[in-house]
Each structure stands twice: as C-alpha cells, then as structure tokens.
C-alpha cells in the first residue's frame, strides 16, 4: 500500500512539474516575450515560495490573460505598460512604477510604447503549482 501511495505522490509531482514547464513555456513563447528567472526560494510560511523573474516585452506585444497561484508584485524597469486586472480599471505604468496583483486575479500586460518594456515580477505563490495559468 505504501508503494502505491509513494507512486501516486511521485506521479502528481511529475504532472505538476510538466504542467509548470508547458504553461510557463507557452507564456514565454508568446511572440517576443522573454522571461529570465532570477531567483526562487522556499519561504518560512509552509507551502509557499518566492520567485523573481525579469519579463521583457517588445513594442505592441500583449502578455495575454493569465493568473498566478499567489500574489504578484510588479516593478516596471523600463518602457510603458498597460495592465488590465480583473475588476479594476486599466492602468498605464512607466519605469519606476509599481503594481500589486492579488492571488488568482486574471490580468494582462501590453507594451504600449515604442521601445522594449521590462518588469521585475516577484511572485509569492503556492509551491508546486504552475506559476502561470493562461485564461481565455
């Protein structure tokens, strides 16, 4: 019985990892979007981790509707973005601006400038869940 339970737990972990890779790759492969993983650490809160990513988006490109299994804190490094967050009025942010996106809220980001736009995204999320979940 223990072997079956261990097998099921292993299978679930592999499925979670594969889902994370597929969804994260789909987001990174949207036309021109580049995601650079900077760091990932377990937090003292059980089952939570922090992940930092630099996201670069060329002019006119949209990061389509998606959500995360936790909070996202955004710091705009360069360029101009329009962020649309579920239940809120769209907001335009430029270098030096910040944005908080609550857990599970569907949102998108579009580079509305004429140059590269980049953000530092810090995620405080549930460990083992896909970081990016694409939405319709």
From TrEMBL:
InterPro entries, per the entry: Cupin_2 (IPR013096), RmlC-like_jellyroll (IPR014710), RmlC_Cupin_sf (IPR011051)
Cupin type-2 domain residues: 54-119
Pfam hit, one: Cupin_2
SUPFAM superfamilies: RmlC-like cupins
Gene3D superfamilies given in the database record: Jelly Rolls (2.60.120.10)
Signal peptide (residue range): none
Protein name: Cupin
Organism expressing this protein natively: Niastella populi
